[in-house]
Write a structure and sequence with these properties.
The chain has five helices and no strands. It is mostly helical. The chain is elongated.
Length: 128
Amino acid sequence: MNRRIILTASFFGAVAVMLGAFGAHGLKNLVSADAVAIWNKGVEYQFYHTFALLFLSTFNRFRTKLVDLSYLCFTVGMVFFSGSLYLLATLQITHIEFINIIGPITPLGGLLLIAGWGLLFFAALKNR
């Protein structure tokens, strides 16, 4: 198993649990129900891709540059996609001024997540 990937997945998994608990218990009294739904979508996708990273860590036998790139895309994609959703969900309490910058980061993060899955697909195709 790949130690770096497992450490990254462990970190993102623990953070997802904490953020999910905060969204369920602390955030719901501070922002609208729509904002909590946005927050929860960020947590949901963070968990999905934490599990994807764990799966990626099992690719020792045929670890390639494609697997490494998939790891990078999943990691940066999670930060961009989920992170921007967390920021968007908390606008009512943070009053962030640079919303025009955050908005485009969400789809960029989504594209990186999609690219991670595509790279994983091609890594599996390449190795019989």
